[in-house]
Amino acid sequence: MLERMLEVILLTLLSDAEKSMQKTVEVVDKEFASLRAGRATPALLDKIMVQYYGAPTPINQMANINVPEARLLVIQPWDKNTLPDIEKAILKSDLGITPASDGNVIRLAVPQLTKERRTELVKVIKKKAEEGRVAIRNLRREANDGLKNQQKNGDISEDDLRRLQDEVQKLTDKYIKEIDALFVAKEKEIMTI
């Protein structure tokens, strides 16, 4: 009975580590999506918050966002009175695009990226990818510390500890490879003219 309980605890520890690593990869993927790569995508506006009735609100919760052309975003607010607030929020953001409004919709023309800006963006995504890898390594350390505590308490043998640490390492390698693949894909997208 005690052995079965211990097995459940260890499986939970591994499962929790894997879920946390998966969430880290998802966060890195969202970070990459929010970076401008010369193409219009609604994800560019994800981090921009608009003051709407005193509360910061994402643009996608107050308007329809369409991509009629490869380099054009059209924002159509549900409440026309919010148009100036959305424009101000876009101007204050680090997006680097000037909104054009006709009183009904806001158009964002995404400019072609310069070579210098592309190189800069690659450095940014490289940094974000490394932050993701570090987060996954920290999760590995936490899982291994939990396993070592189980071994210190006499709950698992040294052989079990090594076997479980190998499992944690396999998870770590798997999710770091996923981050590397996301990085390579985003780098290719940014550098493609």
TrEMBL record:
GO biological process: translational termination
Function: Responsible for the release of ribosomes from messenger RNA at the termination of protein biosynthesis. May increase the efficiency of translation by recycling ribosomes from one round of translation to another.
NCBIfam families according to UniProt: frr
Classification lineage: Bacteria, Bacillati, Bacillota, Clostridia, Eubacteriales
Residues that span the membrane, as ranges: none
InterPro entries named in the record: Ribosome_recyc_fac (IPR002661), Ribosome_recyc_fac_dom (IPR023584), RRF_sf (IPR036191)
Ribosome recycling factor domain segment(s): 29-191
Family that this chain belongs to: Belongs to the RRF family.
Alphabetical UniProt keywords: Coiled coil, Cytoplasm, Protein biosynthesis
Tagged with keyword Heme: no
Positions in coiled-coil regions: 147-181
Cellular localization per UniProt: Cytoplasm
Protein name: Ribosome-recycling factor
GO cellular component, one term: cytoplasm
Top-rank taxon: Bacteria
Record-level Gene Ontology MF annotations: ribosomal large subunit binding
Signal sequence annotation: none
Keyword Coiled coil: yes
Organism the protein comes from: Sporotomaculum syntrophicum
